[in-house]
User: Which sequence fits this backbone?
């Protein structure tokens, strides 16, 4: 399993927490019921936007190709705190509890859609990647 390019700091991050696997049903009398199928949250989504030079954009596009597009899983390392690089750099102090990121064994993601690249200037590009947590 490959590792997501981690040496670049995103300019924008959006994280949507997943839910526990469940099914919502309604009884004949109209009473709503929820059946829970698992004890681990799944389906976390992470949207990252970067401003990069051309060669750095190619690193992400190659990673997308190496993982068969949206098919294969890969590991995203969550480094918090004052590390100047990393996916979640600068989002919290190192001694705070880590409630947003998945547990160590559940950090495999896959691409939700192909990366989007927009040219901002002659040499600068804006890259957006959408990731979704993959439990399988």
Assistant:
């Amino acid at each position: 399993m490959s590792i997501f390019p981690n040496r670049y700091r995103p300019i924008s991050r959006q994280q949507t927490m997943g839910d526990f696997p469940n099914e919502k049903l309604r009884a004949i009398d109209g009473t709503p019921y929820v059946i829970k199928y698992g004890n681990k949250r799944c389906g976390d989504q992470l949207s990252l936007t970067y401003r990069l030079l051309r060669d750095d954009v190619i690193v992400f596009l190659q990673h997308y190709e190496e993982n068969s597009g949206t098919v294969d899983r890969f590991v995203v390392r969550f480094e918090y705190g004052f590390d100047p690089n990393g996916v979640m750099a600068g989002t919290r102090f190192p001694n705070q509890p880590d409630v947003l990121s998945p547990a160590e064994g559940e950090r495999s993601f896959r691409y939700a859609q192909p990366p989007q690249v927009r040219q901002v200037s002659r040499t600068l590009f804006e890259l957006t990647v959408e990731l979704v947590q993959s439990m399988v």
